[in-house]
Design brief:
- By secondary structure, the chain is an alpha/beta fold.
- Helices cover 40% and strands 16% of the residues.
- A 6-stranded parallel sheet has the order 2-1-3-4-5-11, sandwiched between helices.
- The chain binds beta-D-fucofuranose.
- The site of beta-D-fucofuranose has 12 residues, from helix 2 and strand 9.
């Protein structure tokens, strides 16, 4: 009996295993292949390509100081004409030489959804902290044109404008040359609006070189860039004394006012009293050709092409140097080519 049961067990085992595939195939067991993917994994979400700005896309909010003279007129024309040429939408704000108005205009551009980039010619070197922080928070790049501000370099893309200290140095060197044979070297200075970078820096540079040759700045006062105030201040000084050998006008208009005052006081401008100004506008060339102004240090107002190029670069995410100096020259009454140079000037 036991033998019959054992036989049946062996037989059952043989039958069962025969239906099963070999437990161990003839070669080493292969790991099971992963289940074939039924579809490609979803592509990682791709970010939309960054927008590439063009001038035609760009709306610039430009905060101009005002309209105080020939230099400013040429500067404003540069921004309007170049915007037209490049197809830029320009929103032009005239601050009327009022700091509070310029700050308000800045805030207005921050809140204006159409404005992509803000350009400013700051009336003064301070007073910008809040609007600069607001512009950064709003993601609107800021570019300084013409005049610098104190600090806050992380809040603007770049400053495109002149080295006003160097302009002052050039004026001082020119005045030294004009007074080199003069026994006394008393010079009066007509200053731009108080707190403006060109007023601060031109005065600094002038003293560096003028005082090195023995010039003494015996009088210095703001005449706010204007002919009218330049004349009024010089008239008041002439009532006090006529012991003056030179006048430094921090811009052409104030020098023109001084020229008028000298004439009315019976003094011969550019002869009895030497005069040097800064800007070199068409009026300065005319005064040099008339023989009433000894020299003019150039300050280039035609900044718009460089400013718009920087604005576009900023919108396209490029990093720019914090200062892009404008290139300038200097001109003198005794230059034999002065008439030809004047004829070729744009402003
Ligand atoms: O010299 C003067 C104008 O910011 C460089 O401003 C400019 C100065 C310029 O009022 O004429």
């Amino acid at each position: 009996m036991f033998k019959k049961v054992a036989f049946l067990i062996v037989l059952a085992t043989m039958v069962l295993t025969a239906c099963q595939p070999a437990a161990v195939p003839t070669e080493a067991a292969k790991p099971a292949a992963p289940a074939a993917a039924t579809e490609a994994p979803a592509a990682a979400p791709t970010e939309a390509p960054a927008k590439v700005w063009t001038y035609a896309d760009m709306t610039v909010g430009f905060l101009q100081t005002g309209s105080e003279g020939g230099w400013r007129a040429a500067n404003s024309a540069s921004f309007k004409e170049t915007a037209e040429q490049l197809g830029i939408n320009l929103k032009f704000y005239d601050s009327q030489n009022d700091l509070a108005k310029q700050v308000a205009g800045f805030q207005q551009f921050i809140e204006d959804p159409e404005v992509d980039v803000i350009v400013m010619s700051p009336l003064e070197v301070t007073g910008w902290e809040q609007v600069l922080k607001d512009a950064k928070a709003a993601g609107k790049p800021v570019i300084l044109s013409d005049r610098r501000i104190d600090g806050f370099e992380d809040y603007y893309v770049t400053f495109i404008g002149a080295d006003f200290v160097e302009e002052g140095r050039k004026a001082g060197t020119a005045m030294c040359e004009l007074l080199k044979d003069s026994a006394t070297k008393n010079v009066w200075e007509l200053v731009g609006n108080v707190g403006a970078a060109p007023a601060i820096d031109r005065g600094k540079g002038f003293r560096e070189t003028a005082e090195a040759c023995g010039i003494t700045v015996t009088k210095s006062q703001t005449a706010n860039w204007s002919i009218k105030e330049g004349k009024e201040v010089t008239e008041a000084w002439l009532k006090e004394t006529k012991d003056v050998q030179g006048i430094f006008g921090q811009n052409d208009e104030m020098a023109f006012g001084a020229i008028e005052a000298l004439k009315e006081a019976g003094l011969v401008p550019a002869v009895d009293v030497k005069l040097i100004s800064v800007d070199a506008t068409s009026g300065a060339f005319q005064a040099m050709l008339d023989g009433t102004l000894n020299g003019a240090i150039e300050c280039n107002p035609l900044l718009a092409p460089q400013v718009y190029e920087a604005a576009l670069a900023a919108l396209n995410g490029e990093t720019l140097p914090k200062w892009i100096p404008s290139q300038e020259s200097e001109f003198y009454m005794d230059d034999p080519n002065l008439k030809e140079i004047a004829a070729g000037r744009k402003y």
